TrEMBL record:
The lineage of its organism: Bacteria, Pseudomonadati, Pseudomonadota, Alphaproteobacteria, Sphingomonadales. GO terms for molecular function: DNA binding; double-stranded DNA 3'-5' DNA exonuclease activity; endonuclease activity; metal ion binding. The active site is at residues 106, 147, 248. Residues 4-248 form the Endonuclease/exonuclease/phosphatase domain. The record marks 149 as: Transition state stabilizer. Its EC number is 3.1.11.2. Its cofactor is Mn(2+); Mg(2+). Belongs to the DNA repair enzymes AP/ExoA family. The record marks 218 as: Important for catalytic activity. One of its GO terms (biological process) is DNA repair. Keywords: Hydrolase, Magnesium, Manganese, Metal-binding. It is an enzyme of class 3 (hydrolase). This is Exodeoxyribonuclease III. It comes from Alterirhizorhabdus solaris. The record marks 248 as: Interaction with DNA substrate.
Length: 273
């Protein structure tokens, strides 16, 4: 099963790109962020036309998250985090799909730092960490997927020295990310590519994509039950090169149907006396 996250940066303006990618790559489940569309303007008909069930949580002009599935009905469990510090912002949607509980999220950007937006980002992150702990405690196979707006390490950002004052690379935000993963979540992309330079976002300015001057801010985090099923994780970076595309690329994981079997160990040789 192939599960993807994609910040579309405007679902209606980028709809031809989204539909092309869905048709070519045929991911089984997709979470989308930054719809920039009110609830009634989401392009439901076009997406269902490709064989996807879909739920969405829209917002006029900003934010917005959605979930798509072509491997079974989507059973929504919540929209918005418990005790969300600003329930007017559409940033979280959660549903059970094909035996997996998936939380699709769009974490606040937080700039400028310092300031109210940065403080809101930290509060939202704390609420996510609290909710993530309860998801793990459920024992269910769970995934958190989306645009986290954080580069966890220097390997995840082109020229990290230029980002020291940015909310996406702030020590408090990176610490929050590692508090989250420290609960027991597996960073799928970094697990498959432990030492590689791999990005998910390239700015529209200064030929960032052409120079591969990017950021890794879109993440797929797996609970232990799903980490045992991890087969592959990749970035469809070529999509960032398409005309009128998002500044993000789709990121996906492939999961096996069952946990991978550990290699059979040979019995230890007996000592001959």
């Amino acid at each position: 099963m192939k599960i993807a996250t994609y910040n579309v940066n405007g679902v209606n303006g980028r709809l031809p790109v989204l539909l092309r990618w869905l048709a070519e790559e045929q991911p089984d489940i997709v979470v989308l962020q930054e719809l920039k569309a009110p609830q009634e303007k989401f392009p439901e008909t076009a997406i269902r036309g490709l064989g996807y069930d879909v739920i969405w949580h829209g917002q006029k002009s900003w934010n917005g998250v959605a979930m798509l599935s072509r491997v079974g009905e989507i059973h929504e469990t919540r929209r918005g985090l418990p005790d969300d510090p600003d329930g007017t912002q559409s940033r979280y949607i959660e549903a059970a799909v094909n035996g997996i509980l998936i939380g699709g999220l769009y974490l606040p950007n937080g700039n400028p730092r310092p300031g109210p937006k940065f403080e809101y980002k930290l509060r939202w992150f704390d609420k996510l960490i609290d909710h993530a702990a309860s998801l793990l405690e459920s024992g269910l196979p769970v995934m958190l997927a989306g645009d986290f707006n954080v580069m966890p390490t220097e390997r995840d950002v082109y020229k990290p020295e230029r980002w020291l004052d940015d909310a996406l690379f702030a020590p408090e935000v990176r610490d929050a990310f590692f508090r989250l993963t420290g609960q027991g979540w597996t960073d799928a992309l970094r697990t498959v590519h432990p030492d590689e330079t791999i990005y998910t976002f390239w700015d529209y300015f200064r030929n960032a994509y052409g120079r591969n001057a990017g950021l890794r801010i879109d993440h797929l985090l797996l609970s232990l039950a799903l980490a045992d099923r991890l087969v592959d994780a990749q970035v469809d970076a070529h999509v960032r090169g398409w005309e009128k595309t998002s500044d993000h690329a789709p990121v996906w994981v492939e999961l096996s149907d069952k946990p991978k079997k550990a290699p059979r160990r040979r019995p230890a040789a007996k000592l001959v006396s």
